[in-house]
Amino acid sequence: MLWLRVVGVAALLCVSASCDKKKDEPTTTPPERVAAAAGEEEEEAEEAEEESPYLDVSNFNQKVEESVGEVVACYNETAGKEASPPTGRVRVTVVVDGDGRAKDVTFDAQRSDLKHEALYTCIKGKVKGWRFNITLTGADSPMPYTFDLRSGQLLP
After folding, report:
1. Residue 150's closest CA among 123, 118, 113?
2. Distance (Å, rounded) from C-alpha 19 to C-alpha 34?
3. CB–CB of 136/55 below 8 Å?
4. What pLDDT score was predicted for residue 50?
5. What is the pTM of this model?
6. pLDDT at 3
7. What per-residue confidence (pLDDT) applies to 7?
8. What is the number of other CB atoms lying within 10 angstroms of the CB of residue 143?
9. Which runs of consecutive H residues, i.e. helices, occur in the chain?
């Protein structure tokens, strides 16, 4: 009976000594686990960078910037043909419907310093043909944008 106690105490001491040894040893992660963790972080970063299927300021601006050549063409066909072509900024608000279509385009006279009705008509026609991402709620979403039709900006 005494020998069982001695063996039990010895076993406890051995276990606690090995636990203390593990605390003092530096912990290392196998390289394959480090690589797997890095891969997971990259996947999470890629997911965060993926474009949202819903309309937001970023993908709205991206679509407008991809199509800005059509607005410059409108300028060249209208205001740009005048003897002394006016330049300036045109502030628009595009109302995007739930399906991503440009439902309406309005011009902000207070924030636009280039006022030209033929230019406005052409821009409105072009923008109404653009497709945007769907809205999150399916409701109409007004999205503002300013076309800077000045030399050194959208114009050469």
Report:
1. 113
2. 25
3. yes
4. 72
5. 0.67
6. 46
7. 47
8. 19
9. 2-24, 31-49, 57-77, 117-127
Cα torsion 114, 116, 122, 125: sign: positive
pLDDT tens, residue by residue, 103-114 = 999 999 999 999
User: Over the chain (156 residues), what is each successive 10-residue block's mean pLDDT?
Assistant: 49 51 56 61 60 92 97 97 96 97 96 96 98 95 97 92
Alpha helix ranges (H) inside 89-145: 117-127
Burial class (CB in 10 A: 0-12, 13-18, 19+), 148: middle
- The strands making up 88-96's β-sheet, listed across from edge to edge, are 102-107, 88-96, 141-149
Tokens of 134: 């769907």
Whole-angstrom Cα distance, residue 106 to residue 68? 17
Q: Rounded distance, CA 43 to CA 36, Å?
A: 11
**Distance between CA atoms of 86 and 75, rounded to whole angstroms?**
10
State which amino acid sits at residue 46: E
